[in-house]
Amino acid sequence: MIKYFIYEFVFRRIFNWLGICGQMHGVCMWKYHQNHNLTGSKISCKNYWKTSDLYTWMDKRCDSEFLRSLPLPQSHLKVSTGHGCATLFWLSKYSPSEIKNYDSAGTIMDYLVAMLCDLSKPIMSNQNAASWGYFDTVKNEFNIPILEAVNFPVHLLPHIGPAGQIVGRLQFPWIGIEPGCSVGIASGDLQCFAYSTLSHYKLKQHFSGSDDFGFVNISTSAQIGYIVPAPDDKSAPGVEYFPYFDGYYLAVGASLNGGNVLSSYVDSILNLLEEFDTHVTKDKAWEKIMTAGNATLGTDLTVSAILFGERHCPEAKASISNISPSNSGLGHLMRALCKGLIDNLAQFISPEDLLQKGINSIVASGTALNRNPILQQELRKRFNLDVVLNESDAAFGVAQLCRSKIK
């Protein structure tokens, strides 16, 4: 994907700044090895750095019982399964030999930045650090004393720096980019998504005018939120406050359920058909189901679409109720699933919550949302606010961030 973009669109152009963002929470480990010899056409991190697997935000190894055994963090952010520090706790307990192989850890983006700049120790943004857990966003540091007291492998933890700040220079030719290009500390994908949709509104105006915007993103998972000056301890369960840019925070309801729920529904239909020895392509199934859902303008079928649980309630399950002979078709179920996903977001941050903050418009984006008119319709109906569809994404946001710093 990166190579295609570089070679097809910007090959031989001069780059001043390389911005990187990606999925938060996840963790990988590596052992630094100096004096490597790489060329841009044959770059392979594992050729010169011993590297672990990537444990993503979807990792489920840390169950509720294990999480309860961990010390309480000194932070307004809770620790959940899939968070970097929780995963490292689990690995240090159940796979200590794995930990001993490495001297550094970070998100996959921190790994990429460290490799590009040949850093002996990664530098992580406060955005990604906060997503790991055990990070004090006021002091801007990990809870080292708490972690050391329980023999956490603190030697793996990265240094901390501001998101987007220059961390080094590209050390070798890389997919069309010449050495010497400035490389920024990796940012979180959620923050960069919000930046791409909201950056044209000055923060100082965000709280004073009538044109305040919240945001909704529905891709694999789903998020709803808005910018605030500081965390609020009176929020609904599941709403968390992540560092944004320039000292601000994002109030975010981050659901584990989004486009992945709809994909699971389509997969279940395909699996059912296969049991009857009937083959239908996934594209054809999507087409049929979307057509049926669009033709079903409303339904009394009710779906609680929490198929993958939630970080604040991992044991939650999906359910279907109010089934009748007249609402059991594909169209009703697709409509009810989309409505259930939107209703679930409203459990995090309701329309009333947004209006109380002076927010009367929503910038909506994400691959699942942009491709699904049923989700768009249900979002507008449930929130009854002005919804502006936007195709901006996190990559565009980090490019905007780089451009602002060049200026």
Task: Please give the structural blueprint.
Elements: H1 2-10, E1 17-18, E2 21-22, E3 28-31, E4 50-51, H2 64-68, H3 84-94, H4 96-99, E5 104-106, H5 108-117, E6 123-125, H6 126-132, E7 135-136, E8 141-142, H7 144-149, E9 159-161, E10 166-169, E11 182-184, E12 187-188, H8 189-198, E13 212-218, E14 222-228, E15 239-243, E16 249-255, H9 259-275, H10 282-295, E17 302-304, E18 319-321, H11 330-348, H12 351-356, E19 359-365, H13 367-370, H14 373-383, E20 386-389, H15 394-406
Parallel strand pairs: 1-11, 2-12, 6-9, 13-19, 19-20
Antiparallel strand pairs: 3-4, 3-5, 7-8, 10-11, 13-14, 14-16, 15-16, 17-18
Helix pairs in contact: 8-15, 9-10, 10-11, 11-14
Q: What characteristics describe this protein?
A:
20 strands; alpha/beta; 407 residues
Describe this structure in words.
- The chain contains 15 helices and 20 strands.
- It is of the alpha/beta class and 407 residues long.
- The chain has a six-stranded mixed beta sheet with strand order 15-16-14-13-19-20.
- The protein is globular and about 65 Å long.
- 40% of the residues are buried.
Q: What's the gyration radius in Å? A: 22 Å
Structural class computed from helices and strand pairing = alpha/beta
Can you give the mean pLDDT?
Answer: 88
Name the poorly predicted regions.
200-211
Separation, N- and C-terminal Cα atoms? 28 Å
Q: How large is the share of residues in beta strands?
A: 15-25%
Q: Count the DSSP helices.
A: 15
Strand order of the largest sheet: 15-16-14-13-19-20
Q: Estimate the global geometry from the Cα principal axes.
A: globular
Indicate the percent of residues in helices: 25-40%
Kindly state the number of beta strands: 20
Sheet having the most strands: 6 strands, mixed
